Amino acid sequence: MTGRLLESAVLVEGLALGESPRWHGGRLWLSDWMAGEVLSVDSAGRVAVEFRMKGLPFCFDWLPDGRMVIVDNSAGRKVLCREGGDGLVTYADLAGVDEHPWNEIVVDGQGNAYVNGIGFDMMAGEEPSTGVIALVTPEGTVRQVADELYFPNGMVITADGSTLIVSESHAKRLTAFDIRPDGSLGRRRVWAEVDGHPDGICLDAAGSVWCAAMTGCLLIAEGGAVLAEVPLDRSPFACALGGPDGSTLYIVAARWEGTEGMDVRRRTGQVLTARAPAPRP
């Protein structure tokens, strides 16, 4: 593995299991899965509990009109919408596509929401299977647009809206799809092989991908070249670019002891920051 080594600093400690970091409205937002909380964090590391959720995972993003959409696995398989305050209403029902737990969500500039599911219940100890990506349109229709994904995880959409990139954790690769005018996905291809099991990802303005991968966070160019690395003493789960100039890399990480070690009392989770070579798109 090559690439410039970047130093990190701890911004927040004491999380149970941080996930789904997003920069929005001048703050970092993230899920603390085991604590059942959606949090926001300011530049000084002050944490606010925005609202609480049941079940896991629960990842989120924002629609173009500013409403939050969030994956809900607590009662059925749904995407919920936060209309205002703490109220959550059903936005889409995913059970017709796959009844297993759903994972990551990302929204494009047209309001299309892409949601992936790993295809098995990891917390229940089911044997691994392949997963899918579903498309939820602004009109509320839901349909499957990709399958045969080996533990689909983090997803991003390029700034021009033309390409969706998804981590396949069990295949150790990032996979790309063209986004067609109707929102469906085509021209599937390997965007990069990854030395490790890629989890959450984010894009920078140069078109490279920051990828949380086992022992550190990697900046990867299309084709697989590692441009930079933030080494860590615990497992990174996801990352996001943000900050006043868009060049702060936020990483959520925790000590991973398998699903049997997922306990809200084991608060080894952190939010770390590093200075990125390029800002967010």
Characterization of the model:
It is built from no helices and 25 strands. The protein is mainly β and 281 residues long. Strands 1-22-21-20-19 form a five-stranded mixed sheet, with no helix packed on it. It starts with a strand and ends in a 6-residue tail after the last strand.
Question: Short description, anyone?
Answer:
With 281 residues, the chain is mainly beta. The chain has strands at residues 4-5, 8-15, 18-24, 27-32, 37-41, 47-52, 60-62, 68-72, 78-84, 87-93, 102-107, 113-117, 131-136, 142-149, 152-157, 163-168, 173-179, 185-193, 198-203, 209-213, 216-220, 226-231, 235-242, 248-254, 269-275. The protein is globular, with a radius of gyration of 17 Å.
Structural class: mainly beta
Mean pLDDT equals 93
Q: What is the H-and-E element order?
A: EEEEEEEEEEEEEEEEEEEEEEEEE
Oligomer: single chain
Distance between the termini: 26 Å
How much helix, percentage-wise, in residues? Answer: under 10%
Contiguous runs where pLDDT drops below 50 for at least 5 residues: none
Strand order of the largest sheet: 1-22-21-20-19
CA-based shape: globular
Radius of gyration: 17 Å
Taking the sheet with the most strands, its summary is: 5 strands, mixed
Output the number of helix runs.
0
Number of strands: 25
Strand content: over 45%
List the helices and strands and how they pair.
Blueprint: E1 4-5, E2 8-15, E3 18-24, E4 27-32, E5 37-41, E6 47-52, E7 60-62, E8 68-72, E9 78-84, E10 87-93, E11 102-107, E12 113-117, E13 131-136, E14 142-149, E15 152-157, E16 163-168, E17 173-179, E18 185-193, E19 198-203, E20 209-213, E21 216-220, E22 226-231, E23 235-242, E24 248-254, E25 269-275
Parallel strand pairs: 1-22
Antiparallel strand pairs: 2-25, 3-4, 4-5, 5-6, 7-8, 8-9, 9-10, 11-12, 12-13, 13-14, 15-16, 16-17, 17-18, 19-20, 20-21, 21-22, 23-24, 24-25
